[in-house]
Design goal:
Four copies of one chain form a homotetramer.
Chain A lengths: L1 E3 L7 H10 L8 E3 L4 H11 L10 H10 L7 E3 L6 H10 L4 E3 L7 H14 L3 E3 L7 H11 L6 E9 L10 H6 L2 H4 L4 H17 L2 E10 L10 E9 L5 E9 L10 E6 L2 E6 L5 E6 L4 E5 L7 H4 L12 H16 L10 H20 L4 E2 L3
Parallel strand pairs in A: 1-2, 1-3, 3-4, 4-5, 6-9
Antiparallel strand pairs in A: 6-10, 7-8, 7-14, 8-9, 10-11, 11-12, 12-13
């Protein structure tokens, strides 16, 4: 694996490294960790990769790696959003599969351009909507698909954070509040899109319409930092559901509180990212169960992505690693139906663009089309 | 105290009895517990009140009680919403103060009529927005008023229930889904209005605009059973805040999950009705505290409404009793500034009417005026 | 009801008043609230009872009340432990049933004397082991009696408090650390005995042997403030179980954290006093359920002692009131099999005396006999 | 790294692999994964290591690896307890540092023999008491060392599991209930020793005396499966504390519920393994704080062993990896004062042996000496 981005000070670069290598199917061997050659080299040192394979440019990496017998087999893109398209374009042109961080790109137009390139290249492509990698998220998805809730009527997905309630200080914060680097969306693109994907992923439904109320609450902020989006979902079978998506980065005291609740005719289900090894399950007759990760009552999707027995907590890195395990399967030509791919990336960008535009225009309910 | 409503099968009548009598300042001695004389008598038996003072009509009660030296000093109205106005009108005409269940009336027009009567009568009047009676709700209010959060930026108040996810069966359910008895609102009037009051009560802010998305999800339902309302708040000092109110009665597995989160420039605060003896408090620098009811760190408002030391859980009945303690103070001519009164009742009805109408019309953002 | 004890500054007197009156079967009308006449009068004022019935001595109360047509029907004893025997003796001699706070008396000899008096009098007698009044405690008992755990193998009951970690200051604390008023036990008599009763009450088993390790941790303390007791239980059917009882009043940060876990061949069960409306239930095959108070899945014992629907928290006062409801039934000659009585009081005193003596002597395992 | 043990069906082998490689300082390259050559080869395939380096015997591994320029630098021993001594003896004889799973050996005599060998060899040596690797465990330790609790008075450490409540079926269970492979202790050696180490690690105190009550509850079990141990601790400064250690493998519904509570003159602290990213902190004046992993309020020990920001849960594998990071530091000659070493291993064995013997003999309090 070659990494694009993830230089000194990045949070997500090391996370990708941990995740990709956890199951020993993938090894980070090269990278353009920074557009600054010195910083790229420093990153290689931190990652303990060969300094000779820390490149200053994409071109350099692709040329040098192609020439090696043990050259990289794919790239992972972990740089800020505005780099996603050019990086992916170059990788695809070099014949390399691509795993990219979310959101897909900085703008919807870029997303469509990238979609064309991916389709034309016919190469494996994945998007790291991390939270879909949690075993109990997959358990929830499987149970719902098997009809355990009956028809879904209501979805509430929340993603509260508080770390941008003050001034945006530091590498992580600065690019996220800068339209030039983050793109269209602030909070909606950084975390709202995770919540959006999670709701569709677990429910098996698709958002058809939305009403967005995005605010830039902290004085001086150019992008949204607090989002409420009303949703309408539809199922392939014609079913319909109501929904709400709340995402915020100004809620002091919240860390990374993604949680989702789904309610159907026959039951309800709750999952919380900060206590990811428990899934709550309720039925119409008053039964209320806690399903534990690693426990014997789980289905095959969840068990196959669990590494330890019940009571031995797994977390964010293990969930992330599950996406890379899926991607590795795809590289080997095996099916990996749960890995978020191009369509999920595109839907996410359409969600961001539609919400931002509808909120700006005060447009009320608008359709979501991709 | 004389009770109007609360006949056999009612949930809330006994609750008012428990609450009113808990501090021994008030005693239930008479009532028109039902418009059916036999059922009224049966209720007197259940309440252990004098059967001779279980009346078949309001007129009978007011006439007989006026004639007694130990006649009732006020009435409490606990019947379905459409009875509130006639009952209150008769009581006020008889010169009696009134405590009434929420919402104030069945329609906004009735509310305005009642407001005129109350103002003209100049008698004590209270509305049982129960949740404002919890000690930690009052603690939250006091801390916010003292500036602990700085300017409030965001309020999320949720009131999920699941008991109407199936067919509406039984006395409690049936009138709540019947427009003739419940009035304008279903879920929004039954529990949404509690959430609305709580948000204004704790924050000290007022809702100025709202955008409502109300749904009748269970097939055949005439009134809303699932509500999302976007809010804008304003403070007396010109401050502004964003907000969301979620209320639902179709969320299977939810019992009575009222919870509120308030976020300001300097901190965040969370309270949950089902674990009412803990208040979560967070600050911008990462401190996260749990404040316990009965503990020594509470302010006077909270301590004065707590009956047991920390660790001895108090609940719904004790919170409700705190409103009656406030009302008793008012009857004695003492100040009871935290008791919800006519204005709170009117604002609640305006909220219900505005939300129902705006949602029906697909009106987008509308002002909330009283 | 006449009250003995509960004067100004007492915590438990008002609690008994709330509890006794909650269901309107009992009314506090008289009392010897203090051995100081002025303080007794002040208490009557606080309780809102007739000042003429606030007596300075037991003799005065019994004489005056006997002379009234509406005189008291029973007494409740809420004074410190060393008063229990003389107060009960006088009440029984006056022909009055007795409800008394735990522990039964200050010493085991007193307990045996009282037992003789109660048996001779043949009058209703109850002991307020409060925690046995919680609906979910009764649910747990009923489920276990019905075999839901299979044979019980292990019981862990803990009662951590922290309020005596510093110096014992104030009326509540002072008598509890004074052997002259508290009797044999400090922590073991104040809260350990609650835990002991709860373990026997829920499990249906009896403690046959114990090994006690009691400490007086805070410098200068004459009585124990931190207790560990190993237990052996036996069932009527010859079954045996291991157990541990932990009680402490020096565990800073603990409020009133009574909790019990019972494990059998087929399942496990957990109940916590500070969140009393949930009961955890697990089975050998990995199922983990939360049972909620007020919910439809409860048995008749629990439902009959619940006043509100699920999600409306009930607490300490409601649990306490359930004991008085049982006592009122007993006064009416109805069965009240769950009300702790003389035998429970005696067993508690035997537990305290045996644990204190065995710990002092470093005796290892000793039998518990009554 | 070469692995000894960890063949097909083992739980802990893959865990060591994940943990050792997570920070990319260590790589698993060889192993005697099983004494069966075919199974050793199968394990190499599962671990994705070179099949040529999957050896059938220790001798073969040490000989072959010594001959390679890139031969292993140390071994990790993950086989059942009775293998620890012979494996470590061979490795030390081959001049290789050793990391070993706990308990140190199967018997105390073996432990002393091993201690002699380790001291004579002068090579780095570590014991994987996993739970000491959690960041918040290290935070707790640092805060206590800095005096935040004042003198510690009481320690309660519990380790409940339920997976051996039924028959012991499967590779994991079978050897643990077999004295020939597990050694002296069942539950006490498998998990009790973790709890013992954790208590000493966090508190900085040492156990001086214990009273053990070990039971073999499940019919037919030869080793203990349910343990209660009373403890006395002493500090280097002469301070003393009381303690209790509870460990069980028959508590149905418990997964891996290790938790520890420490109480001092000035405060109390609680950590739970199943929700390892929160630490509860209470003070004598009623303050109750939650400290979050990854948050800015942590000290350097905790921050240096955290890989993600607050709200991104880390778990068991990351904690385990922290021990390997310490071990890697030690291999480089850097200080790693928090890595459990020979003395911790010896103390653990002394604890097991003393508890087993004292319980069998009904000996009451006995000293713990190493």
């Amino acid at each position: 694996m070659g990494m694009i981005g993830g230089g000194p000070g990045a949070f997500i670069g090391p996370v990708h490294r941990y995740a990709a290598e956890m199951d020993r199917e993938i090894e980070l061997v090269a990278g353009v960790f920074s557009s600054d050659a010195g910083r790229s080299l420093a990153a290689a040192d931190a990652y303990r990769t060969d300094p000779a394979r820390a490149y200053p440019t994409l071109e350099a990496m692709f040329a040098a790696e192609r020439a090696r017998p043990d050259g990289i087999d794919f790239v992972t893109i972990v740089s800020p959003n505005h780099h996603h398209l050019p990086a992916a374009r170059a990788a695809l042109a070099a014949g390399l599969p691509v795993m990219t961080d979310k959101p897909l790109t900085a703008t919807l137009a870029q997303a469509h351009e990238l979609a064309g390139l991916v389709r034309a290249a016919g190469l494996p492509f994945g998007v790291t909507y991390t939270y879909s990698g949690y075993p109990l998220v997959r358990e929830a998805r499987a149970r719902i698909a098997a009809g355990a809730l009956g028809a879904i009527r209501k979805i509430v997905v929340e993603y509260p954070q508080g770390w941008l309630a003050g001034e945006a200080v530091g590498k992580q914060a600065e690019w996220r509040v800068d339209p030039a680097r983050a793109g269209l969306g602030g909070c909606i693109g950084d975390i709202g899109v995770h919540a959006f994907h999670l709701a569709e992923f677990i429910s098996g439904l698709k958002v058809t319409h939305l009403l967005a109320d995005l605010g830039a609450v902290v004085p001086g902020r150019a992008l949204d930092d607090d989002c409420t989006v009303l949703l309408r979902f539809a199922g392939a079978d014609g079913s319909a559901a109501r929904g709400v998506l709340l995402a915020s980065q100004i809620e002091v005291g919240e860390r990374n509180g993604l949680r989702i609740r789904l309610y159907g005719e026959k039951g309800g289900l709750t999952w919380r990212q900060e206590t990811p090894n428990a899934l709550e399950w309720a039925t119409l007759d008053g039964r209320h169960e806690i399903v534990h990760a690693g426990g014997g009552l789980l289905g095959p999707d969840a068990l196959a992505r669990t590494r330890t027995p019940a009571g031995h907590p797994e977390g964010y890195l293990e969930a992330f690693a599950n996406l890379y395990r899926d991607f590795a399967a795809k590289l080997r030509g095996e099916p990996a139906p749960l890995l978020p791919g191009l369509d999920d990336g595109l839907r996410g960008m359409a969600f961001i663009a539609t919400a931002v535009e509808a909120s700006r225009a005060g447009a009320g309910w608008v359709p979501l089309t991709v």
